[in-house]
Amino acid sequence: MFNATAVSTPFDDPLYAGTDFSSLNWFEQQWVAWYVWVGNPIIATGLASFLLHEIVYFGRSVPWIIIDAIPYFRRWKLQPTKVPTPKEQWECTKQVLLSHFTIELPAIWLFHPMAESIGMSTYQVPFPSLKAMAPQIFLFFFYEDLFHYLAHQALHYGPLYRHIHKIHHKYSAPFGLAAEYAHPAEVFILGAGTITGPLLYCYFTRNLHIVTVYIWIVLRLFQAIDAHSGYDFPWSLQHILPFWSGAEHHDFHHMAFTNNFSTSFRWWDRIFGTDDKYRQYRARVQAVKKSMKNASKEDMIKFEQQLQDQIEAEGIQAEKEAEGTAAKTVKVQ
């Protein structure tokens, strides 16, 4: 099926009538072979979309599972005393699979008809150039980040938090697999931010290929899983792009319950002041590190743990307030 020679001559398939197969690159040839082999573009697109998500999501999570099992990497773990157990990872995996099979799988078969109705290219070849795809993908990142920022804050509102978002906050120290550990309703709500960006763009421009959407989804999955990894390496992207969110930014959200509601970028939290506690926390850590530069590593670790315990205690109280199970109190800064 995936032999390049086999797809180098014209098919009898009406989808590719008049296509010059000799001009296609290897990836485009495999794309044609897939659609011809499946024989139905709706099924081919739906199956490819589902498999892409599952393979990338769990494939990207595996390295973090391995890293969690190796003590050497604790030096870069943001909350080093909280390492997920195999039992926690398995419970997380089951919930993720439940959401994937109850929300994503039934809905994904509608994607091809919807995409074609607004002019999106699916089975067509050749693919657009990287130069054409890059600005589209950036717009999808921008749109999703704003969508997620607003929707995420809404999910911290009493009833929505209590009945939906609370599941995702089970882990105050997240790990890679937990990126999509959520109520099926939350998967649908926040997933809308990922897919409606491309759909709206295509509706207004009539110029989008599903390959661009797939690349965007792969990058978005990498972003989400890495942001939940719980690790901040010197080579992590946030140290190269200061406006990138990353694990160091999102880990605080799980620890403190409040602040840092965006996904990919830091600017909405900064503009609207929803990173105030986070910045105070980072400032305290840096100030104490400077004042304790001659202290032992053990003393430094002890201080950071005490500060994290304090932040987490405040987060537990904030969570109770969001649920309406505790009277609001004034936080000690």
UniProtKB/TrEMBL annotation:
For this UniProt record, give its keywords in alphabetical order, as a comma-separated list.
Answer: Membrane, Transmembrane, Transmembrane helix
MF GO annotations: iron ion binding; oxidoreductase activity
Q: Does the keyword Transcription apply?
A: no
Q: Residue limits of the Fatty acid hydroxylase domain?
A: 138-274
**Does the keyword Oxidoreductase feature in the UniProt annotation?**
no
In terms of InterPro entries, this protein maps to: Fatty_acid_hydroxylase, Sterol_Desaturase_Related
> Any idea what this protein is called?
C4-methyl sterol oxidase
